[in-house]
Amino acid sequence: MINVEAILKLVRSGDLDVSEAQRHLEELAKAAASPADRVDDLGFAQLDIDRERRTGFPEVIFGEGKTAEQICTIFQRFMEHNDRVLATRVSKDKAERIQESIAGLAYHPEARVLTWVKPGSVTPPSSDYVAVVCAGTSDLPVAEEAALTAEHMGCRVERVYDVGVAGIHRLFRRLDVIRNATAIVVAAGMEGALTSVIGGLVAKPVIAVPTSIGYGASFNGLAALLAMLNSCSPGVSVVNIDNGFGAGYNASLIYKMTTKRG
Predict the structure, then answer these.
(1) Sign of the C-alpha dihedral computed for residues 22, 32, 60 and 102 taken in this order
(2) What is the pLDDT along the chain (262 residues), one digit of tens a residue?
(3) Of 147, 134, 130, 149, whose CA–CA distance to 208 is shortest?
């Protein structure tokens, strides 16, 4: 379900006809009148249908641990209530089975993300953008989860990949792109030093994502997590290990607050 402002913009641009706009407005009114009843009970899952009205973005499906059939059922229900659906941590074999049942889904294998957007329902992003930066190619799955989450939430995303501190000259070649972003996501494993370097070079909020990439002493991302938490660079916040979704979501909230003020 989209908000009133988005509905009016779509009508003005000609991407939404009056009858469809009226339907969306009626759904918004219904949600506002009875928010406590906006739960879809599937037995194995309690779907939070009202989440977009409360928080600005619909509930996201966490695919890990769920069967393909469960994800498929949840996806179909969310498609009835929302104009966009996002599922994270969906394996390739599960995604293929779900796509056989539901047309129009896009699967992004590197990030293990499954998405759907109702045609004509999304407002084009502004010229502002979120920068998603990763230290090495091995960090790409986490970085892509962050980038795709932000894009699905309506942000423009600029990707700056493989610019870790082992070859720091590569970072300086893209520094203008990073500095001009509204918010910056940095994904890094090993010792996680890239976050502190970027934090000391920019005047924008930095959201750090430690990845579980590295040799034995990296302790599956714990070394990077602790290094990021102990960063002496100001303006750095840290999400959990491999939590690209959380980083992309937080960057999107910053992006939306900034573009609204603009």
Answers:
(1) negative
(2) 567 777 888 888 887 888 888 887 877 776 665 555 577 778 888 888 888 878 888 889 999 999 999 999 999 999 888 888 999 999 999 999 999 999 989 999 999 999 998 887 666 667 899 999 999 999 999 999 999 999 998 899 999 999 988 889 999 999 999 999 999 999 999 988 999 999 999 999 999 999 999 898 889 999 999 999 999 898 899 999 999 999 999 999 999 888 765 4
(3) 134
The domain spans of the chain are 36-117, 130-261
Handedness of CA 172, 173, 176, 181 (dihedral sign): negative
Q: 82 and 40 in contact (C-beta within 8 Å)?
A: no
CATH architecture of 130-261: 3-Layer(aba) Sandwich (3.40)
Residue corresponding to tokens 């949600």: 31
C-alpha to C-alpha distance for 100 and 120, rounded to whole angstroms: 23
**CB of 189 closer than 8 Å to CB of 136:** yes
Tell me if 24 sits within 8 A of 2, measured CB to CB: yes
Q: How far apart are CA 172 and CA 162, in angstroms?
A: 12
In 3D space, the residue among 185, 181, 182, 108 whose CA is nearest the CA of residue 146 turns out to be 185
User: Which residue type occupies 204?
Assistant: K
Work out whether the CA dihedral 33, 35, 36, 40 comes out positive or negative. Answer: positive
pTM: 0.81
